[in-house]
Structure formats: C-alpha cells, structure tokens
C-alpha cells in the first residue's frame, strides 16, 4: 500500500474509494462496480498528473524523502552483479549509513558507494537514517583510493539528509572526514560519476558527489541546508520551510540551469516510488551514458576534467 | 632610524581611524567584563589584557599586525555574479550585502594579501566574521582560489585564517560548491609543495570546517575557538543531552587529535614565522616587529580602504 504525502490526500481518497469498490465486488459476485471504479481510476490518474506536473520545491523535498522511494540498496541489487560489500574504515568502525564495495556494472568491474537510509524502523536505526559518521566518509575514501589504484570507475549514489550531527561524530572529526572525502573525489584517477537519488544534504552529499558527472532524479533535491534549517535561521521560523525551499533553488531543474549538475533523470508519474523498476532502469541508463562520456580519458584528463568543472562552477547565475 | 615610532605607530593609528568613534574609547571584555582601554586592547590584538579572552579581529587589523611593518599588498579577487539566485528571505540578499559592506567597510568576507612576516614572503587570506558571519559564498571561494594561485605563482606558502558561521545560504547550492572549489585550491598548493597553514579562529563551523579549514599541513587554533561541523545547539537537539564543558573548543579538538597546536593570538606571528621558515628550509628569522620591507617586489602599497556604499 502506498504511503501518501500530505499534498496527495485528495488522491488518496479517490484511490481508496476505487480500492474499496473492488474489494466489495470481490465479496459480492452480482455487484458490477468496474465502470465506476474505472472512472475513479481515470480521475485519480488525472489528479496525479496535475499534482506532479509542477511540483513546488517543498513538495519535491517531500517526494525525495518518501519512505518508499528506491534506496541505494535497491539500485545496487538491480543494476549491479557480484556485489561484494567491503566494510570498515580500518580505524574505528564500519558505518552502516554508507554502503559500498566491488561490483560489476554491465559486466565491468566498478566500485559502488552510497548512502543507505533503511526501509523500516529497525533498518533505519541501523543505517542511522542515512546520516554518515566520520567512519562512513573514511570508508568511502578507502574504497575510492582502492578503485583508483586498480583502475575501477567509481559510482556514487547520494541519498542523505546530511552528515550526522552527533557528539562522537564531532569528536572523531566529522569535518576532517568530509573534507578528506571531497579531496579524494578530486584526486582519484578513474571516472567518478554520481547520481543524487533522493536527498543531497549539504556537505554529507558533496563528499560523494564531487564527481566528473553528476545526475539527479527529477524530484531529487540537493541543497546547502535543509529548508527547515534555513527557515529557522533566516526566517526564525522552521514552519517557513516552503518559502525556504523556494528560495534555495534546490531542485534538479534549477541546479541543471546553474550548471551544478549535468543531467536530469525522469521519474515515473507520481514519483520514483510509484514505479521503482522503471526508475532504477533509467538510473542505470544514465550511469552507463555518463561512464561512456568519460571513456578513453586517462588519469590526468579525468582529474583535470573534475577540477575544471568545479573551478568554473557558478560563473553564471540563474538569469543567464 | 627608530622604526618603531615610524612604522608601528601609524599602524595602530590606522586601526583607530578606520573603525572607532571617539566615544568608544573603552570596551568591555565579552568574557570577564573588565573595561579595557581601546588602544591597549587593540595593541594586544583584541585579546583581553585581564583574562586572555580572544575577541574578534578583522582581517585588516590582523594583517596590519601580522606583516612586517604592517605593510601588505592586497590581492585582487575576481568578482562573482552577484545574487545568483535572486535570493530573498525576510530581506533581499543585495540589501543584506549592502548593510554588511556599510558596517565593515569591506567588499566581502575575505581579504587576501601578500607581504613578509619576519622577512619571509607569504600569501595570507583571512575571513571576516563581522561580514555576514564570515559566510562562504562564491566570493570567498574565489578569494581562496586567488590566494592559492598567487602562492603558486610566487612560490610562497599560504597562511589562512578561518572564521565562519558556515555557508552563505543566500547563494544556495553555489555556496555548497565552494567546498570542492576551495579543495581544488588546496590541492594546487600541495602539488606545488608549498606549505598551507590554517589558523582556525572563533568560530569556524559547517562547510568551511569541512573543506579548506581542515586540510592544512599544519592546523593551529586560537584559544577557546569554537571549531565544529555541526553546531552545539544542533547536536543538543539531535541527541537530547547537554554537551560537556569545552566541547568543540580548540583545546578539546587538540585533545582529540584534530589540531597540531593551540596558540594565543599574541604569539601567533612568531610561531607562523618559525614554522614557515622551517618548512621552506630557510634559516631562523629575526622576530618581533620588523620595519617595512625593502620594496624589491612590485609595489606592496598601503592597503586601500575600499569604497563605501
Ligand atoms: Zn577578559
């Protein structure tokens, strides 16, 4: 059963009614509800189209955080073969908010790394809701360096509310860990491609997304701060998150225009969670296309491509 | 020639003339509450002469005290697109900028300069917490890149003084993109085998800490500076417990292996001279206030006061 977002409430009613009618019909052989149910389906379909035609930035944030949105582990399971998770930062712990390891993508050996939020209470707690601690970034550094030594492309899947703001995380150098991960992204001599599959939360996202190519799902968001955080600082009212989401320009569409991301991956009608396998397929195609664009570039070219991309970034505003 | 009267005094005078109004001859220490004579406080680099508390200092004041004879030459920072997102919260971003410029007399939150310390040529960059909380946007990113490029061009070390509440939210994602951009700047220095020394001052937080401010060859902090990724309030809200005394302060980070040294501001200059000269393989320097260097290099002029709006 789909979990509805607050703005989808009218839709929930219609879809619920259709469902109910069909359930009644199943118990009552002589009842014919199909015509009525089909009409409701059509109405629901139109409503879904209308709702998703022009999602506001805040609604996109909600879709990006939808609990049923496909997560890193769904993509790894569907798009990669021989996935062999590698664990630990060799220093303190293994951070379950970050998954990663060796795998094959279209038979080609690669290193895949991503944030995993978990999909039920137990796994969400275990994954710390996708908020990595220093160990997670240090594990990523280790895997990226390994990939660079063995010539394996690195694919990162970004989906995090942000780095974990905790006591231990600070004590063990959250800032330094993020800084080193970003530095490593810029240093590795192999193709690095990144897809923001859900939330790209601030520095915790940059640490993985400082890539040669960055793609975003249509309703993903990528921002320097959460709309709630921004609202509470600039508006002194966390309830002003709609305004903040608007002002921050955190949608894939705005970021493409600003030159921060390279491509937008279309989502099925009603968001990725309403068509998981179609979404995953599209992400796979985007990764393939981005890797192909980088084919034939040597180490030096890959490194300078990445540097130039970021050095030149932001030289045009949205108006341009 | 008595260079102390010739060079040191004008330096102090210039601090007075720029910022202070006559009625503001006394300043209260934020920490111990002692009333301090402004001139004395300024001569002590805004460190309380009673309790040692470090108060804010602007990049310009810092540079006047840091460079030999108070002489430095400002490095031009490429201007970014202004207000790239047409950002508006309760105020328009351009209005906030104008107010900050008027208040500080500076165009933006970072100052980059070349000059000599103990006759050691360096490039220095300092972040201005009084300018919109020192927040990192396109300009600060451009400033750090310009500083690194200048250091590479002149084959000099870069000394960076950080101070920031974090990212410039009004530049949205573009402020976030300064994390990779400034990291590229640090990589330029490392590839050229040039020392990169970071002095973390109060406060250094958020994306600034999680990029260039944590990537120095040597990491020094001023006493009691707050240095963190997530601020203490955010952490307390997340973990719902009170944080220990001194958490995320310079001394705490030193204990946890995140810094090399915690050094009082009044001793920083000598220490920076010692460290850079060793890293550069130079003989020990003459310390203390030094006169204006000989003008062999292209005109390190007195810093200009930028036009006020
Ligand atoms: Zn005091």
Task: Report what the structure shows.
The complex is a heterodimer of chains A (320) and B (309). In chain A, 50% of the residues lie in helices and 16% in strands. The radius of gyration of chain A is 21 Å and the shape is globular. The model of chain A has no long low-confidence stretch (mean pLDDT 95). Chain A is of the alpha/beta class. In chain A, strands 1, 2, 3, 4, 5, 6, 7 and 8 form an 8-stranded mixed sheet that branches. Chain B is α/β, with parallel strands linked by helices and 309 residues long. Chain B has 2 domains: 1-55, no CATH class; 57-279, Alpha-Beta Complex (2-enoyl-CoA Hydratase, Chain A, domain 1), CATH 3.90.226. Chain B is 36% helix and 15% strand. Chain B has helices spanning 3-19, 38-43, 59-66, 93-104, 138-154, 172-176, 178-191, 206-209, 232-239, 250-255, 265-279; strands at 26-28, 35-37, 72-74, 110-117, 120-127, 158-164, 196-204, 218-221, 261-262. In chain B, the strands form 2 sheets. In chain B, strands 3-4-5-6-7-8-9 form a 7-stranded mixed sheet, with helices on both faces. A two-stranded antiparallel ribbon of chain B has the order 1-2. In chain B, helix 8 links the parallel strand 7 (196-204) and strand 8. In chain B, helix 5 (138-154) packs parallel to helix 7 (178-191). At the A-B interface, helix 7, helix 8, helix 9, helix 10 and helix 11 of A face helix 5, helix 6, helix 7, helix 8 and helix 9 of B.
What are the main properties of this structure?
heterodimer, A: 320 residues, alpha/beta, 8-stranded mixed sheet, 14 helices, 16% strand, globular, B: 309 residues, 2-enoyl-CoA Hydratase, Chain A, domain 1, 2 domains, 7-stranded mixed sheet, two-stranded antiparallel sheet, 11 helices, 36% helix, disordered N terminus, disordered C terminus
């Amino acid at each position: 059963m789909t979990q509805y977002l607050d703005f989808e409430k009218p839709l929930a009613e219609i879809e619920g009614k259709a469902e109910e009618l069909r359930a009644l019909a199943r118990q009552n052989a002589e009842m014919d509800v199909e015509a009525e149910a089909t009409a409701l389906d059509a109405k629901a379909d139109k409503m879904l189209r209308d709702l998703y035609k022009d999602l506001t930035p805040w609604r996109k944030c909600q879709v990006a955080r939808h609990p049923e949105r496909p997560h890193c582990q769904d993509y790894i399971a569907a798009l990669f073969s021989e996935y062999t998770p590698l664990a630990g930062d060799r220093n303190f712990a293994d951070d379950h908010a970050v998954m990663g390891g060796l795998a094959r993508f279209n038979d080609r050996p690669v290193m895949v790394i991503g944030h995993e939020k978990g999909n039920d209470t137990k796994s969400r707690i275990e994954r710390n809701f996708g908020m990595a601690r220093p160990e997670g970034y240090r594990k990523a550094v280790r895997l990226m360096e390994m990939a660079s030594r063995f010539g394996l492309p690195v694919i990162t899947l970004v989906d995090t509310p942000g780095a974990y703001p905790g006591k231990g995380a600070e004590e063990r150098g959250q800032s330094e860990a993020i800084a080193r991960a970003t530095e490593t992204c810029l240093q590795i001599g192999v193709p690095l491609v990144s897809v923001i599959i859900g939330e790209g939360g601030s520095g915790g996202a940059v640490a993985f997304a400082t890539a040669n190519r960055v793609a975003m799902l249509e309703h993903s968001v990528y921002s320097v701060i959460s709309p709630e955080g921004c609202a509470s600082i600039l508006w002194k009212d966390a309830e002003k998150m709609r305004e903040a989401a608007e002002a921050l320009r955190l949608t894939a569409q705005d970021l493409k225009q600003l030159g921060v991301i390279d491509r937008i991956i279309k989502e099925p009608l009603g968001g990725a969670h309403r068509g998981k396998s179609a979404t995953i397929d599209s992400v796979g195609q985007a990764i393939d296309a981005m890797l192909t664009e980088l084919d034939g570039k040597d180490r030096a070219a890959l490194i300078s491509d990445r540097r130039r991309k970021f050095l030149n970034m932001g030289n045009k505003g949205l108006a341009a | 020639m008595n260079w102390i009267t010739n060079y040191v005094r004008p330096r102090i005078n210039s601090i007075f003339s720029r910022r202070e109004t006559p009625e503001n001859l006394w300043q209260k220490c934020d920490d111990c509450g002692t009333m301090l004579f402004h001139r004395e406080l300024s001569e002590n680099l805004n460190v309380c002469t009673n309790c040692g508390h470090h108060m804010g200092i602007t990049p310009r004041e810092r540079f006047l005290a840091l460079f030999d004879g108070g002489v430095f030459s400002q490095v031009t920072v490429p201007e970014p697109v202004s207000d790239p997102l047409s950002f508006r919260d309760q105020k328009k971003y351009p209005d906030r900028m104008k107010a900050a410029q008027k208040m500080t007399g500076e165009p933006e939150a970072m100052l980059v300069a070349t000059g000599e310390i103990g006759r050691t040529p360096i490039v220095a960059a300092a972040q201005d917490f009084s300018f919109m909380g020192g927040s990192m946007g396109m300009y600060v990113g451009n400033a750090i890149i310009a500083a690194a490029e200048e250091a590479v061009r002149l084959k000099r070390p870069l000394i960076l003084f950080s101070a920031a509440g974090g990212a410039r939210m009004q530049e949205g994602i573009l402020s976030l993109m300064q994390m990779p951009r400034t990291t590229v700047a640090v990589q330029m220095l490392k590839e050229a085998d040039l020392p990169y020394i970071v002095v973390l001052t109060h406060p250094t937080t958020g994306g600034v800490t999680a990029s260039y401010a944590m990537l120095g060859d040597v990491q020094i902090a001023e006493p009691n500076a707050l240095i963190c990724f997530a601020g203490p309030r955010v952490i307390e809200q997340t973990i719902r417990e009170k944080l220990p005394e001194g958490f995320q302060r310079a001394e705490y980070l030193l204990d946890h292996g995140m810094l090399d040294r915690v050094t009082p501001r009044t001793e920083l200059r000598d220490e920076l001279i010692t460290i850079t000269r060793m890293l550069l393989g130079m003989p020990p320097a003459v310390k203390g206030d030094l006169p204006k260097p000989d003008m062999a290099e292209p005109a390190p002029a007195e810093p200009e006061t930028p036009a006020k709006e």
